Amino acid sequence: MNTELRVAAYAVCVRGTVGVQEILLARWVARDGTKRWTLPGGGMDHGEDPADTVVREADEETGYAVEPVRLLGIDSITRRYPRRLGTFADFQGLRIVYEGRITGGELRHETNGSTDLAAWHPLDAVGALDRVELVDTGVELWRTRPPVGRVSVPRD
Q1: For residue 19, how many C-alpha atoms fall within 13 Å in the half-sphere facing its CB?
Q2: Distance between CA atoms of 91 and 150, rounded to whole angstroms?
Q3: 3-state DSSP assignment of residue 86
Q4: 101 exposure class (CB count in 10 Å sphere: 0-12, 13-18, 19+)
Q5: CATH class of the domain whose range is 2-144
Q6: What is the pLDDT of residues 122-132, one digit of tens each?
Q7: Phi, psi of 32 (to 5 degrees)
Q8: Rounded distance, CA 34 to CA 26, Å?
Q9: What's the pTM value of the predicted model, to 2 decimals?
């Protein structure tokens, strides 16, 4: 069985005041065409610093300049994926989650990438969105700011 490791960095960007808060999300398009909301971010390039990754990815996916202001936590997932010729891959995703602050730019949608839309959503309505579990993890990290940077969130 092949093993795969993907390290990625994501931003939790929340604006507004208590009671009227919105979170910035990007809509991820899976290989099979399904679409679900996710945090802006993505895979690190070799030799890239995770903070630089989240800045680059947020710009690509949303049009905003995002400044990472706090490390919220690190999330690790494992999956088993089918590969060609009946083989499988043992995948681990290591996701570095930052609190991000918008410092410039304008909202726009990514073209020719892994996402097709970017939008602000009411924070209290996130539970009703078709989303990846990373959104729940990021929101929980942002809300609770656990000392060890880890929360227990039910997985897909």
Answers
A1: 0
A2: 20
A3: helix
A4: middle
A5: alpha beta
A6: 999 999 999 99
A7: -85, 5
A8: 14
A9: 0.91
